[in-house]
Design goal:
Length: 430
């Protein structure tokens, strides 16, 4: 089945910019909500000195992931912060000290079984680094007796404009990506792996083909340079030909999906024992003189990233993530989370005025899930739950393609998300 897609300008000026470490910030703010699932609870107190890699947040819920300090310093306060969904969570404010030292807790894990591997991945704090942030150990913790996975799908599509952090992972840490793939295949007993990379990244395709040439069952698939190529269902379809139907998970078609940066992190963690405390982000936008890629401690404030960037004027809009699925932040004190792969800065951004729908059908043709955004908008405005369910609104992945192609500049993607939330609320009440 061929899925719909659209073409976007790439704006990947940071693609050939080698990653550099940001200067150690004077303070970090480490949110206890760094992943999809249940937030953590702080396990350190105000006034306590913590070291780099030390466990600072824990949760016993299944869908959660531990949180570690990204710096050495003193916990000066525990504050309330808002996440991108408007929910309030605890966050540790840590003032750094000049001498940075690793915690005594850090040591490479001993892996002798599948269970050891899944436990180690959980203890590492690993989450999906492509943006969704689902705890990795939950994906890996399936029961092989009832769930049959034969293919590992490695997401290296990176289809949004500006973002080049995954591309730089291939180019700078390709050996780690390949090793992470081998480790996942080995411990989870997965026979095949496919690495999906868009055609506009020929050097990454070449590099990963060479690095995996001797690996049985591993292949690199050149994907069309279209959007939303990196979406899980689209990626699976374009790499394996399999179709994940509504309400199903990738495991239903024998696939397990991980981001290429997640695979690289797992390789690094198994060798060093250093948990997920930093990540690579792209810094770009229409006011950035020298677009680049930074490696930053988790919890680095946006203001510190703005200060480190070579910009012409102060931004009037800052995005976490890409321009299609990213989030505009409201406060420069907002800290970087594990899930943030880019900080984009813009000035003189246009404010688009909505006009009436002209029934052109472009949004329908653009939707990779085959939805009807105009009808969803109408049903939501009428608060028609049954109509929204019949229109399969839950299938919307919030890629934003419908809003992008709409000549009337209607907020279709926004309405889709509100409609999904409305349906969930109504079904919960029932």
């Amino acid at each position: 089945m061929k899925l719909n897609s659209i073409r976007l300008p790439h704006f990947n000026a940071a693609a050939e910019s080698r990653s550099s470490e940001i200067r150690l910030p004077g303070q970090v703010v480490i949110s206890m909500s760094q992943h999809g699932g249940v937030p953590c609870t702080p396990v350190v107190a105000v006034g306590e000195t913590v070291r780099t890699g030390q466990l600072v947040g824990q949760c016993d819920a299944v869908i959660s992931a531990p949180i570690h300090s990204s710096v050495t310093g003193k916990v000066v306060s525990i504050i309330k912060t808002l996440n991108v969904f408007g929910k309030t969570h605890d966050a540790l404010v840590i003032e750094t000290i000049p001498t940075q030292t690793f915690s005594d807790e850090i040591r490479p894990p001993v892996i002798e079984s599948r269970e050891d591997f899944v436990r180690a991945v959980k203890e590492s704090g690993s989450v999906g680094l492509g943006g969704a942030g689902f705890p990795t150990h939950v994906k890996f913790g399936y029961d092989p007796k009832t769930v049959k996975i034969d293919t590992l799908v490695v997401n290296g599509a990176e289809c949004e404009p500006y973002i080049t952090s995954d591309y730089r992972t291939f180019m700078e840490d390709g050996v780690k990506v390949a090793d992470g793939i081998r480790r996942i295949m080995q411990y989870l007993d997965i026979k095949y792996a496919v690495i999906g990379i868009e055609a506009d990244k020929p050097e990454a395709i070449k590099k990963m083909t060479e690095l995996t040439a001797g690996d049985s069952g591993v292949s690199v698939v050149k994907l069309p340079s279209s959007y939303p190529q990196g979406a899980e269902k689209v990626l699976i379809n374009n790499t394996t030909g399999r179709e994940v139907r509504e309400g199903e998970l990738p495991s239903s078609v024998g696939c397990l999906v991980v981001n290429c940066s997640t695979a690289a992190f797992i390789s690094d963690y198994l060798k060093t024992g250093i948990p997920l405390i930093k990540r690579r982000i792209t810094v770009d936008g229409n006011i950035v003189n020298k677009p680049g890629n930074l490696i930053v401690p988790i919890g680095t404030k946006t203001a510190d990233i703005i200060a480190a960037a070579d910009i012409r004027v102060q931004p009037d809009r800052v995005l976490f993530g890409g321009p299609m699925m990213g989030t505009a932040i409201y406060d420069p004190e907002t800290p970087v989370l594990k899930t943030i792969n880019a900080v984009l800065m813009f000035a003189d951004t246009k404010r688009l005025e909505q006009t009436a729908c002209i029934r052109c059908g472009r949004c329908v043709r653009a939707c990779s899930m085959g939805l009807m955004p105009t009808e969803i908008e109408h049903a939501f405005d009428l608060r028609d739950v049954e109509r929204l369910r019949k229109l399969h609104v839950s299938q919307c992945m919030n890629c934003g393609a419908c809003s992008y192609v709409c000549p009337a500049k209607r907020n279709l993607s926004e309405k889709n998300q509100l409609a999904k939330l409305f349906v969930r609320e109504q079904l919960t009440k029932r």
